[in-house]
Amino acid sequence: AMKINQDTVLRGKKVTLVPYTAAHVPRYHEWMQSEELQRLTASEPLSLEQEYEMQRSWQDDADKCTFIVLDAGCWPGQAEETSMVGDVNLFLTNTEDPTLGEIEIMIAEPSYRGRGFGKEATLLMMAYGVRSLGITKFEAKIGQENEASICMFKKLHFKEVAVNSVFQEVTLRLDVSDQERRWLLEQTNHVEEKSYAELKQLAGVLDT
Question: Domain N-acetyltransferase spans what residues (predicted)?
């Protein structure tokens, strides 16, 4: 799946989603030194070298689709690395059911939280999953203490289906009926899909 989006840019009002490349790793690595983000994403800190390896493996992985979330007001114009605000992932890990995607959103920059960036990035990823990856069901697993994230997914029509007290996480789910599909495409009808290579070329011209 990851190969599918390697030249895809999804441009919304607040956010622009771009493929996760080696150029994004240093900033991403910096984010993941934060204990709060490690807790919220249930991840261990990696060395910079490990983070590069991880990015490479994700790029070749068939069951992950990852975008870096950029501030649409900053890029193109500013460097991508300084425009980064988070990332959004879709995991297609259920071998029994290839139409199920587990979605994860992280707005890593504190100043961007609570401003609708996560919501738009999630909507863009969901619409992409439905249109380009054949997803008809979404799940999100969120730490119980992450109320802001749980609340956001509920606003996007997800319903709480399970609570795991061992991992202290809540599972939310959305089945994409025809009605939900229409709603999702309406919510994202402003989105432009572009070629990453072309936009990078344009950005290079703007940067100089």
Answer: 15-159
Which residues, in sequence order, are CB contacts of 155 under 8 Å at separation 6+?
119
Secondary structure class of 41 (helix, strand, coil): helix
CA–CA separation, 9 vs 18, rounded Å? 5
> In the chain, how many domains are there?
1
Angle between helices 178-187 and 117-132 (to 10 degrees): 130
Write down the pTM of the prediction: 0.93
**CATH number of the domain within which 126 lies:** 3.40.630.30
- Does residue 205 fall inside a structural domain? no
| pLDDT tens, residue by residue, 152-189 | 999 999 999 999 999 899 999 999 999 999 999 999 99
Residue 201's contacts (CB-CB under 8 Å, 6 or more residues apart) are none
Residue numbers of the domain that contains 92: 8-192
